[in-house]
């Protein structure tokens, strides 16, 4: 199918019921992750930066869970960095990365801009949901195509920029030729940053999605003024057509995984295996002498047994496994602040060793697998066997589990979590204006006094 035409022609009536439901779940999950992310220094710095250096001119959009305004480009950038700061957001195996982290902030920035312009009709809930799905469909395919054609392992921002550009093309709106130019600009300027650099040396740059959102939205506004950039090779070169021919028939949004824990996806199979052994044998952390993890190569690069920052904790394998063995779950508040100095968690973390198993590496990225062996001080040992990460499409989280995850993040943080959840659940049931949802999502976050900061 012609991709620029699809961007403009996709209608709510074209979406199967399962796709509509998945769109709601993706939205709810991303909002919960964003609420957790708003507690981070990364989010605060990014939002302040957007207000100061991407200030609102003729166009303004509110920043995700902040209330302040910036340009749509700045608001999108800050929102994507906020979601990325928690690392609990959805993803796709073949892209080895994330698209929703950019799709939602880009869509919110564009929707809020439209809402703030009296001459523009208010966006309805069905168009909002359709655009959300569209972003997933374009971004996921762009990610697969780019990984298939590029020699390096780049961050998600390199390709989810095209999702943001597609949304800008639809909602500004651009004509077909301008849409081609926007996609080309976004592909060219999307950050081809090195993913493994951030794995080996975790910092706030993370997965590049804030820069991808900024590049994609900028591409749309530039194309609107006549800036050129076509073609986007990931869409238009002959070898890439196989990834785009099934637009509108194969729904890539249904292939997204959901994260039970707010850490790098590569650590999840080991966490799941460790949790299963803990439950099955009634283990207490004080009984554990050592842990051996056999897993795929990329996961072994997640070292950092004694993280000094939230980012190092999220890109660690031993530390979150140790958290799971002590507490039975990986809470977001266990990955920040004084929790990083938990003596028992650090003892366990240093007692964990990871090694590559070739058969597991061969199954990556389609599957992420680990085998965990726990040895106790009394000499007993327990083996998990090969364990695939839960939340994948073939091992899906129940919708109820995704909703519970939202509540664990939202309670005590958002002043109206029930209203927020209700509005997301009703999206598409009718075509009421999206403005009330925007106010809940883009207004100043009313912080509550609570020691509970959510866990996944």
Automatic annotation (TrEMBL):
MF terms in GO: lyase activity
Residue ranges of every copy of the MmgE/PrpD N-terminal domain listed in the record: 5-234
Family: Belongs to the PrpD family.
Alphabetized Pfam families for the sequence: MmgE_PrpD_C, MmgE_PrpD_N
Domain MmgE/PrpD C-terminal residue range list: 262-421
Organism field: Verminephrobacter eiseniae (strain EF01-2)
InterPro entries documented for this protein: MmgE/PrpD_sf, MmgE/PrpD_sf_1, MmgE/PrpD_sf_2, MmgE_PrpD, MmgE_PrpD_C, MmgE_PrpD_N
The protein's name in its UniProt record: MmgE/PrpD family protein
